[in-house]
Each structure stands twice: as C-alpha cells, then as structure tokens.
Amino acid sequence: MSKIRVGFGFDVHQLKEGHPFVMGGVTLPHHAGAFGHSDADVIVHAICDALLGAANLRDIGYHFSNKDERWRGISSLILLQHVVELLNEKGWQIGNIDAMICLEAPKINPHIPQMKEKIAEAAGITDEDISIKATTNEQMGFIGREEGVVAYAVCLIEKSA
Fold first, then answer.
1. Is the Cβ–Cβ distance between 94 and 155 less than 8 Å?
2. Which CATH number fits domain 2-160: 3.40.630.10, 3.30.1330.50, 3.40.1190.10, 3.90.1010.10?
3. Which of 22, 79, 112, 119 is most solvent-facing, going by the fewest CB within 10 Å?
4. What pLDDT, on a 0 to 100 scale, did the predictor assign at position 51?
C-alpha cells in the first residue's frame, strides 16, 4: 500500500526590459525577462512550491529566502534539486508534475521539449512524468500588457506506507 499527496504551486514575476528570460531552465530570446532574486524561473518556482506543499514542507520562500545571498542569481533548477532532496529525506517520490505558464510572449511551445528535459533531470524523473502547457491572458491585465508572467503547477507525490 502506498500513500499519495497532491500539491499546488503558483508563482508570478515582473518582466523587466533587457533582463534574461529563463523558463524551465531554458533562456528564451525576448526583449524582457522575469525579475527576481534567483533567475526568476516562474515555472520551476511553481513546481517547487507544489512539491513542498504536497510534502507539507512549507514553501519556496521559507527554504530559499530572497534575503539570503547564497540564492542570488542561482539557477532555479538547483533549487528544484534541493526540494527533491528534501522530499526524498521524508521518503517521498514524485509521481508526476503538470504545469501551466500564462504570458503573452514569447511563444513557449517550441521550447517545451527542452524545458521538460531540464526539469526532469533536476527532479530525477523522466520527461514523460512532466506536462508543460502555455496560454495567454488574451491581452488583459498585467499579463496581457506584458508586465509580468505567471505559472501554476500541480504534482503528485507518493511513498510506501
């Protein structure tokens, strides 16, 4: 018999002109990028929060404070590796991850296979266990004005009882 839990994650970052745009561990060509303490990779941050929440291990800000200089500019994939280590210490394994990015531009679809590959490697799972989708906000609100980017993620984790 095994025990399963579901987690939900959300992240949002402001877009700033001339800043690198990192999504799913891939730097995408765009005039503006997400701004934050780390590389501001919203999809990986949402995934981290979903995994931490499912395991009842608080949230990404608790483990990787934006006041801690160790995390300044760091790849969010390294944060994901740390999150997976925390889960493994508690006996949890990732079943699957489903994530959604909401932004107007750039187009994400051509980069999804590479993002899945990088996230899977960091999480220690196969890319078959990761779904990444993208949508726009139909030019409404801060997303529609290209002022920010949002990501959502859900995950399933399990352990033997």
1. yes
2. 3.30.1330.50
3. 112
4. 98
Each as own residue / partner, the long-range contacts of residues 134-141 (CB below 8 Å, 24 or more positions apart, any chain) are 134/100, 134/101, 134/102, 134/103, 134/107, 134/108, 134/109, 135/100, 135/101, 135/102, 136/102, 136/103, 136/104, 137/102, 137/103, 137/104, 139/104
* Sign for the pseudo-dihedral over CA of 66, 94, 7, 138: positive
pTM of the entire predicted model: 0.96
Q: Are 1 and 139 in contact (CB under 8 A)?
A: no
% of the chain surpassing 70 pLDDT = 99
